[in-house]
């Protein structure tokens, strides 16, 4: 059951948008046009796109993902997307 977490900082709601981590499906990250980055001081990688979250969510919906939940955590907005598999 694939899940994708999409998040952005409130002050960056026009992008960039974080769309995955090191364990994310490479095919989905490629479809989104995401680039893998490691922020200075972190020992893990994340995938980012320059587009705002709304465009990322639209792209995910086109390939069968649906929003499960959305929340704000401090200054971060987070959307959890899920796609049913057969």
Structural commentary:
The chain has 86 residues and is an alpha+beta fold. The protein is built from two helices and six strands; from the N terminus they run E-E-H-E-E-H-E-E. The chain has helices spanning 26-32, 53-62; strands spanning 3-9, 17-21, 35-37, 46-49, 66-73, 76-82. The strands form two sheets. It has a three-stranded antiparallel beta sheet, with helices on one face. The longest helix has 10 residues, at 53-62. It is globular. The protein starts with a strand and ends with a strand.
Helix content: 10-25%
Q: How would you state the average pLDDT, rounded?
A: 88
Strand order of the largest sheet: 1-6-5
Q: Identify low-pLDDT runs.
A: none
Biggest β-sheet: count, sense, barrel?
3 strands, antiparallel
* Continuous helix count: 2
| Through-space gap between termini | 9 Å
Which short descriptors sum up this protein?
86 residues, alpha+beta, Gtp Cyclohydrolase I Feedback Regulatory Protein, Chain: K, 3-stranded antiparallel sheet
Short description:
Pfam families: GFRP. It is found in: Cytoplasm, Cytosol; Nucleus membrane. The chain is α+β, with helices and mostly antiparallel strands.
Outline the secondary-structure elements.
Elements (H helix, E strand, L loop, with lengths): L2 E7 L7 E5 L4 H7 L2 E3 L8 E4 L3 H10 L3 E8 L2 E7 L4
Antiparallel strand pairs: 1-6, 2-4, 3-4, 5-6
């Amino acid at each position: 059951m694939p899940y994708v977490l999409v998040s952005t900082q409130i002050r960056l709601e026009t992008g960039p948008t974080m769309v995955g981590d090191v364990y994310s499906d490479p095919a989905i990250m490629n479809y989104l046009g995401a680039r893998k980055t490691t922020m200075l001081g972190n020992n893990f990688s994340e995938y980012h796109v320059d587009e705002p979250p709304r465009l990322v969510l639209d792209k995910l919906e086109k390939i069968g993902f649906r929003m499960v939940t959305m929340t704000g955590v401090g200054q971060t907005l987070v959307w959890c997307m899920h796609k049913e598999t057969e």
